[in-house]
Amino acid sequence: MTYRTLATTAVTGAVAAVGARLAYRALTGFPPGGEKAWSRVNHRGEPVTLLEGPAVVSGAVAAVAVTALAGTASLALPPRLAVAIGVAGGGAAAFGVIGDLKGSGKRRGLRGHLGALRHGEVTTGAVKLAGIGTAGLLAGAVLRERDGSPVDCVINAGLISGGANLLNLFDLRPGRAIKVAALTAGLIGSASAATGRGAAGTAAVAAPLGAALAVLPDDLAERAMLGDSGANALGAMLGVAASAALSRPGRLGLLTVIIALTVISEKVSFTKVIARTPALNWLDMLGRRPVPQ
């Protein structure tokens, strides 16, 4: 990994972390629409704020903008990649906010929302799926190289929209979605370095990862949670990073895993599987408050 890659990654991650903390402080100090609109009850029955999500997106998008504009020589994120992260993250966050503020929770999962649609009921979840899918297609098109196949655009769109949906499924316990995102970011960065795409892959994961880790203490302390806006956006931005970092076979393999886990989630509770698996349960509980007996 070159000095330029390391420098770009470090600067991008640091700017994202600072941006996320500043955005979180500003949003919680002056919550849009009032504090009540963003307040929810967590699994303990205690109040948490959903403003962590918009803060993460703000920090990550600001970071890619800064490092892309930095750019003549030593510190530069490719403009195409920066735009794709902004489109994917911003689009997923915008439609995620609809789920956070307008969602009823009566319909859950792909089956619930698509089933309602077949009966003429347009749920907020269906609107969110369509919006995030559109954002994924746009970001995938931005990422496709001039000589790339339209197939690459479709694969990238699948990684972005599928990643957005899948990560949101983990946002059910404190810190879980961010831990999954951190592990995923590490795998993407390692794969990027191994395939010779280090600059693109590691810089792309640095923005969402830095922003997410900056708010992890508040998530673990159960003061805040990502919500749909944060989890969807974080998954979408990691999907962009994977699209930039992996070869076509690698992207197809990852997309297969995302689809398989999404289908499995319709029948299997990830929370129950994690609780029954010692290693996963240990990681899930790391840094969290003890579960009441």
What does this protein structure show overall?
The chain is an all-alpha fold. It has one domain (3-285). It has helices at residues 3-29, 52-69, 79-102, 109-118, 124-143, 150-168, 176-194, 198-220, 227-245, 248-265, 270-276, 278-285, and strands spanning 39-41, 47-49. A two-stranded antiparallel sheet has the order 1-2. A hairpin with a 5-residue loop joins strand 1 (39-41) and strand 2 (47-49). The radius of gyration is 18 Å and the shape is globular.
Low-confidence blocks of residues: none
Helix and strand pattern: HEEHHHHHHHHHHH
Strands of the largest sheet, in order across it? 1-2
Helix content: over 70%
Quick summary:
With 293 residues, the protein is an all-alpha fold. 72% of the residues lie in helices and 2% in strands. Helix 2 packs antiparallel against helix 3 (79-102) and helix 2 packs parallel to helix 9 (227-245).
Index terms:
293 residues; single chain; globular; 12 helices
Write the SSE topology.
Blueprint: H1 3-29, E1 39-41, E2 47-49, H2 52-69, H3 79-102, H4 109-118, H5 124-143, H6 150-168, H7 176-194, H8 198-220, H9 227-245, H10 248-265, H11 270-276, H12 278-285
Antiparallel strand pairs: 1-2
